[in-house]
Amino acid sequence: MLLASENFGLSYVLEVVGLAFVVAFVVRKVVPPLRAAMNRQEAAIRAQLAAGDEARAAAERLVASRRAELERARAEAGTIVAQARESAEPLASDGQRRAEEERARLVARAAVAIELARAQARDEVTSRVAALVIVAAEAVVEAELDGEMHHHLIAQAIAAAESEVR
User: Fold this and answer.
1) pTM passes above 0.70
2) Which of 35, 96, 120, 166 has the fewest CB atoms within 10 Å distance of its CB?
3) Contacts of 40 (CB under 8 A, 6+ apart)
C-alpha cells in the first residue's frame, strides 16, 4: 500500500495533465464559436453605428441645404430691395415696403422648410434609436429565459448571422 506522501507526486501530475486536457478542449472547441459570435455582434454594432452616422450626415446635409436656401432667399430679397431703390426716388418707400414683405415671406417659408427638415431628421433619428431600444429590450427579454432557451436562441442567432454572412 502506498502512503499519501508517496502518491502525492503522481496525483499532482495526473491533475496537471487533466487540467491541460480541459484547457486544450476549451481553447479548441469553445473559444472559436464564442469568438465568432462576438465578431458577428461587433460587426452588427458597427453597422448600426455606421447607419446612425449616415443618418446624422444626411440630416446635416439637409440642414445645410435649407440654410443655403435661406441665404438664397435673403440674397433674392436683397436684390429686390436694390432694384426698388434704383427704380425711382418717389417709389422708393413703397418699393422698400414691398421688398421687406417679400423677404419676410421668403424667410418665413424657408424657416418653415428648415423646421420641417429638422423635424424629419429628428423623427428619423428617433425611429432609429427606437429600433435600437427594441433590439436591446429583446436582448434583455431573451436574457431572462431559462438555460435551454438560451442555447436554442444562441443557436438561432449564430445560424442567422451565418446566413447573413453568406
Assistant:
1) no
2) 166
3) 158, 161, 165
